[in-house]
Write a structure and sequence with these properties.
Layout: E1 2-6, H1 10-22, E2 26-30, H2 33-41, E3 48-52, H3 60-70, E4 77-82, H4 87-95, E5 100-103, H5 108-140, H6 150-167, E6 171-178, H7 181-188, H8 190-207, E7 213-218, E8 221-227, H9 231-246, E9 250-252, E10 255-257, E11 261-267, H10 276-292, E12 298-300
Parallel strand pairs: 1-2, 1-3, 3-4, 4-5, 11-12
Antiparallel strand pairs: 6-8, 6-11, 7-8, 9-10
Helix pairs in contact: 2-3, 7-8, 8-9
Length: 311
């Protein structure tokens, strides 16, 4: 585990570095508080830190304050190394956000035990963060396709429309539906149908930009939200999706399954005033037109009027 030593006494810093390295830590050493604070803000910063109470530029207590105020996650476990003996000083250090302290001169075994406690806290924190991320993924993503779920893709659309209105940008929306999907389930079975849905979502995900979004709107229907994408660009992108999805069969345990997809496209304009419901209806109406016109095609909205329900 990586650990930071912040100590302006070069001899003590070298002794600590040697001892901690012998205990298996990956040591990062700093000579003053300013340097220590920069290290703690860096990518992949140490999550264990031994800070001298008194240092140039920034003392250990001040660093504790800044870490707790500005770097709440992931948690940094801080041990203050101090010559202070007064109870009120030690209390002030703990209230500033230190997790523990050790007095100079310190005993090696005492430091080892306190670091072991710190490691355990960090490990538990990592487990909690991992569990929270799993719960977040389950709450926001479709379990089968790993695309955003219905509620989340609509929330994203609302968010992107609000941002686009502030910035005078477009938002494109694509509604995409697999053609005759019921026949896939009836012919090959639902497990094969699930494999098809998963493969289609993966193909769509492979095409999008880092700031685009693919969601499973329901059943075999997907929604794609395209920030900063006008109707013409969204239409071209929808055609790329259609060709990618339909270009080759899906390999399943039941064999190669051919699939086609119909897509409807709509986009807000830079004037603003569009709401998510209108945009979804416009794209859904275009999808209905694609179905009506023979399927396996892209149709683009001409208005927000709802022509008919999607089949």
């Amino acid at each position: 585990m990586k650990i930071l030593i912040a100590e302006d006494d070069s001899l003590l810093r070298s002794l600590l570095e040697e001892q901690l390295t012998a205990w298996g830590y990956d040591v990062v050493a700093s000579r003053d508080g300013g340097e220590a604070w920069q290290i703690l803000q860096s990518k992949d910063a140490p999550k264990l830190a031994i800070l001298d109470w008194m240092m140039p530029e920034m003392d250990g207590v001040s660093i504790c304050h800044k870490v707790r105020a500005e770097l709440p996650e992931p948690y940094t476990y801080i041990i203050l190394l101090t010559a202070q003996q007064r109870d009120e000083d030690l209390i002030a250090g703990m209230e500033a956000g230190a997790d523990d302290y050790i007095s100079k001169p310190f005993k090696h075994n005492e430091l080892k035990v306190r670091l072991r406690a710190g490691r355990r806290i960090i490990e538990l924190q990592n487990e909690l963060l991992a569990a929270r991320e799993i719960l977040r993924q389950k709450a926001s993503h479709d379990a089968l396709t790993r695309a955003w779920n219905h509620e989340e893709i609509l929330r994203i659309l609302h968010q992107e429309l609000a941002r686009a209105e502030r910035e005078g940008e477009y938002v494109g929306v694509i509604m995409a539906d697999l053609d005759h999907f019921k026949q896939v389930n009836d012919t090959y079975g639902h497990m094969a149908g699930d494999a098809v849905l998963h493969a289609v979502a993966q193909r769509m995900q492979s095409l999008i930009r880092p700031y685009d979004y693919v969601g499973r709107y329901g059943g075999e229907e997907f929604m794609v939200v395209l920030p900063e994408c006008c109707q013409e660009c969204a239409s071209a992108f929808a055609e790329r999706i259609r060709q990618s999805v339909c270009g080759q069969c899906v390999d399943t345990s039941e064999g190669q399954i051919p699939i086609t997809m119909s897509l409807g496209v709509a986009a807000s304009d830079r004037v603003g005033g569009w709401n998510a419901q209108d945009l979804v209806k416009a794209a859904d109406t275009s999808l209905y037109q694609a179905k009506k016109n023979g399927r396996n095609r892209v149709e683009v909205a001409v208005s927000t009027a709802v022509l008919a329900p999607n089949d």
